[in-house]
Amino acid sequence: MSGDRGTGEIEATLIAGDGIGPEIMAATVDILAALGAPFRWDHQQGGMAGVAAGGDPLPQATLDSIKRTGLALKGPLTTPVGGGFRSVNVRLREAFSLYANVRPVRTMVEGRYRDIDIVLIRENIEGLYVAFEHYIPIDDDPHAVALSTGVNTKAGSRRIIRFAFDYALRNGRKKVTVVHKANVLKALTGIFLETAREVAEQYAGRVAMDDRIVDACAMQLVMNPHQFDVIVTTNLFGDILSDEMAGLVGGLGMAPGANIGEHAAIFEAVHGSAPDIAGKGLANPLAILLASALMLEHVGRGELAERLRAAMQGVLHADKIRTADLGGTASTQDFARAMIARVSAGASNAGA
């Protein structure tokens, strides 16, 4: 998950999102500017903001912008539960064939576990999230039976599994764990495990492979998370396990995500829009900042990503500035000001 776009200015689409999205995104844009990040932002809308502006949760202007830039930073977007419009996140992944979802978790604050450092790589456009669904009416009940069909292909499985092994090689990782439910879903996830074993042979001696049934993996992540390095799995299982993994390091407030395709990449905070605290200045911007670090690495600016992460550690531990979800009293702006001070100092030192 890396590229090299040189050291010049890079246009990127910015979607502030719903709820706390505009607050954390405004803080992030200011921090990245102080860092000297190369991004020139094309501001677009999505989610409820898109509905309010033009009746569409994924406006054509937003799609056109991402198609042009091939790069986006996205805040949380509201998806109605049950009825309403289809998930904008899913639509974006499908529209740009963002087949790889990369969700790293790493210990940043004190908690139940120490030194967690796991990366989950999730197949992003197949599985049960293709949403081939319908109801079967019985008597007077139009929703008496609900059916959903999942689709996994050998080609799609091979692509994501190779991505996971290549990621491990690039980042000095030693093992890839393939997570499945092939003991019950013998076709739908059996094809994933079968393909993984074929692909793993090409990396023998460089990256080890093992596999876990998904429910056993969920238990083992709680009992001994340090046994895992890189996890690769199908769409639904990846969605669930990545949230569990975020819980190991303090919650979704520190969980970034990268959605990678051949022609576009969208980086995001994994957490929701938290409408209950929107506008109160309480939101934690760490997840979108961590996503920004992944974005910097993607465009070949790894040195800026490391400075950004170092500043986060300094603010959390040396400055002891934390938002309420991390046990502190700082506002979003308090955290942003502390980050700006640290990255600005780092920029001065880098240029000395």
Describe this entry's structure for a reader.
- By secondary structure, this protein is an alpha/beta fold.
- Helix 1 packs parallel to helix 11 (332-351), helix 5 packs across helix 6 and helix 9 runs antiparallel to helix 10 (302-318).
- A 10-stranded mixed sheet has the order 2-1-3-12-11-4-5-10-8-9, sandwiched between helices. Strands 6-7 form a two-stranded antiparallel ribbon.
- It folds into 2 domains: 1-104 and 249-352, Isopropylmalate Dehydrogenase (3-Layer(aba) Sandwich), CATH 3.40.718.10; 112-125 and 154-244.
- Helices cover 40% and strands 22% of the residues.
- The longest helix is centred in the C-terminal third of the chain and has 20 residues, at 332-351.
- The two termini are 30 Å apart.
- Strand 8 (175-180), helix 6 (190-200) and strand 9 (208-213) form a beta-alpha-beta unit.
- The chain has helices at 21-35, 48-54, 60-69, 88-95, 154-170, 190-200, 214-223, 235-248, 286-298, 302-318, 332-351; strands at 10-15, 39-44, 71-74, 100-106, 117-123, 127-138, 141-151, 175-180, 208-213, 230-233, 256-260, 265-269.
- The radius of gyration is 20 Å and the shape is globular.
